[in-house]
Amino acid sequence: MGRISLSGKKLVFWGTLSLIALIAILFWWLVDLELVAKYLFDLKWGDVALASILLVAGLAAHAGRWWYLLGYRVSFKLAFDAANLCHMLNMWLPLRPGEPARIYLVGRTGEVSYSETTGTVVMDRWLDNVMRYGLLALAVAIGLGAESGAAAAVSGVLFVVVLFAAMSAVVIYREAVLRTWPRWLAHLPWVTEEGAQNAISGVVDGISDIRSLRELTRLFVWSLAIWLLLILSYYAVLLAFPFELPPLQMWTIAIGAAVLSPPTAATEPGLFHASVVAPLTLIGLDPAVLTAFAVVAHLLQNVWLTGLGLLGMVRLPEARRISFAPSHGAD
User: Fold this and answer.
1) Are 223 and 203 in contact (CB under 8 A)?
2) If you write DSSP's letter for every residue of 254-282 in order, what string do you get?
3) CA 20 to 30 Å from 11, out of 211, 244, 255, 298?
4) Residue 27, in any domain of the structure
5) Residue 74 lies in a domain
6) d(CA 90, CA 88)
7) What pTM, to 2 d.p., does this model score?
8) Rounded to an integer, what is the distance from CA 85 to the centroid of its chain?
């Protein structure tokens, strides 16, 4: 695999820095920053602490699912430390070097081959993407269609049932799914049969390593636990503010933020705020509320992902040599 040149890395660095500066200028111009500051000074720290606990629990569950994908052949401590180091590197460095780092840290033990470890990372990311797409539909249903808590609860239950049924169908009836689903989806507005075929082929390829409904069920339960904890963490951040929002609006923000910028796919400061605030503002939510939420939510991620990543680096001495690790595509 070719390496990115030094000039290319500099271009990415300065491009990212320029984008963050542009985002900061736009926020200064478009958002009532005095109101944002007032919200921040009146935080309830007990709820901030609760959000921190839920965030760390979500990260631990995320590492636990990867540990399960690895077949428990390495220690949970190694899986947890490698996953957290991955999140920290992805948050602070361009080009997202965290995935190669965690592949190296686990593959070098010899308990799991480099190719097997790579496969588990691909599956891990695939499961996260499936949950994000499903939760996006749920956030839209709650934000635009649900008029009561009961309707939102029904939407949540339907989301779980439909997503699990669709994944089960892919596991059991792969060929039939590839043959028939693109034609069905082509009846939807703005969906072509070719586009649906490409999308479904990607899903089938991603799930190809899941061989039984029992394994799918376990992974699905792990995924639900991860995303519930991350969403509750964002919800607890909202509870920490002095403003009072309708519960359905709070769920829309919490689910939307988890979909748009989850802690397990951390981004640089500025990019997080833009990816969360701008889309949710477009559906009518208060930009000052969203900006204050984004500041606290991302600050918690900075503190915990960096702290846990540094802890992993201390507990894994080989992580200090990660810049010099060779690239392994196979054994």
Assistant:
1) no
2) HHHHHHHS-GGG---TTHHHHHHHHHHHH
3) 298
4) no
5) yes
6) 5
7) 0.79
8) 15
Give, to the nearest 10 degrees, the angle between helix 247-260 and helix 287-315.
Answer: 50
Token reading at 44: 């309830």
Task: Read off the pLDDT of residues 243-302 as tens digits, 9 standing for 90 and up.
Answer: 888 888 898 899 989 998 898 887 776 677 778 888 888 878 888 888 889 888 988 998
In a domain, 254, yes or no: yes
Alpha-carbon span 75 to 92, nearest angstrom: 26
> Measured on CA atoms in the order 28, 34, 40, 41, is the torsion positive or negative?
positive
Report residue 308: phi and psi, to 5°.
Answer: -70, -35
Domain around 77: 42-324
- The whole-angstrom separation of Cα 280 and Cα 260 is 10
Strand, helix or coil for residue 42? coil
Task: Give the total number of structural domains in the chain.
Answer: 1
Do residues 224 and 160 touch, judged by C-beta distance below 8 A?
yes
Rounded Cα distance, 8 and 51, in Å: 38
Q: Look at residues 25, 17, 40 and name the one whose alpha carbon lies nearest to residue 242.
A: 40
User: Residue 139: what pLDDT?
Assistant: 74
Under 8 Å between Cβ of 237 and 300: yes
∠ CA 215-218-220 to the nearest 5 degrees?
105
